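My current task is to audit a protein record that another person submitted. I have pasted the whole thing underneath without changing anything:
***
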Amino acid sequence: MDTIASLFSFITTPVSWVIVQFHSVYGKVFGADTGWAWGLSIVSLVILIRICLIPLFVKQIKATRAMQTLQPEMKKIQERYKNDKQRQSEEMMKLYKETGTNPLSSCLPILAQSPFFFALYHVLNGIATGKTIGVINDPLLASARKAHIFGAPLAAKFTDSADKVGQLGATLTDVRVVTAIMIVMMSASQFYTQRQLMTKNVDTTVKTPFMQQQKMLMYVFPVMFAIFGINFPVGVLVYWLTTNVWTMGQQMYVIRNNPTPGSKAQAAYLERLTKHVTHHGKTRRRSEKTIIKAIVAKGRDRNEFERKFINALNKAGLAAHADGTVAKGEAEAVTLAEDGTPTTGGAPKRQQPKRQSKAQRQGGPRVAGESTASASSTPTSLEKSDEPQDAKPADKPAPKSGASGRSKAQSGQRKGGPQRPKSPSKK
């Protein structure tokens, strides 16, 4: 064990120093030998580490979403080269290189956190065995051995014997009850974190093997924590439980404010954003502008939830602009029409054709291309005819266009059908 501790000395010394600094602060409030002072020191160490790992967490989210986007292409490669594993691996690496993704990026926070976990484990193990480690000297070692969390010493384990627990000033029942409760809470928090990721923040339109793997991990990780947790000291359980709670809260924040496109979380987010934007008439936060900008840039590639969001803005008389802002106007009407999405607000109205008169409707449609002059030269019913007057049976003026139908009906002619032949005139 000393050999392993010496290998991690480059990290155990800084970790022990941070714990001692936090302990000096909390010891003034709760007392130097209390479990609150040492327990809160471990919790503060977790918070400090996780704050430093936020950039890696953001990179992990981007890598995970990039991998989800590539799942259909990866499935095609697997089906195409299912009998050639080497070619399959080559095509996978080529796809990763072209898209700039790295499968290991999703594991960066866990890999970066592992050295701190092992360093804390060795620090607490040194406290349990009565050996100084890092900057923890003999007085601090004696104070840490007296610290109890709900009756369980920081260095006690679930598998410890009654004699060893008695040396730390506790009973075996207290240790096992406290460690069992912490192990259950640790496994439950891990299960809930993975479950909300699978049920809320996964694109439901794409069914890939990646989703099946994540679903399997949802049940495997809690079991692993339960198995290995019985060998962890109470202080390490505090560290790991705090880490799981931090991860759960951090993920809930990301799912609520930056959900995966096509997921149920995105549908809920866009519904809240629609109410907010239509009420205020504009966007207020930078994150909202970023999401709206991405939705506008997608064009025809928008999913069902994004199209509903754009249509809801149009019905409210608002338009989403390319820079992510939302305002009243018709700036986005042309873009939305090109995208193929139905628009109601800001769209140009359809111009109705000019209504024709009754005479124009009875005269039939005019031949396209006919000149205006030829149309004007046609004699109307009000103009005089060039024929001699004696050719007409009477010197009566021609009936008006409005009475033409009645005159034809009176003369025995049919309007729409063939005309009745005239009887020969009697002289």
User: Anything to note?
Assistant: The two ends are 141 Å apart (CA to CA).
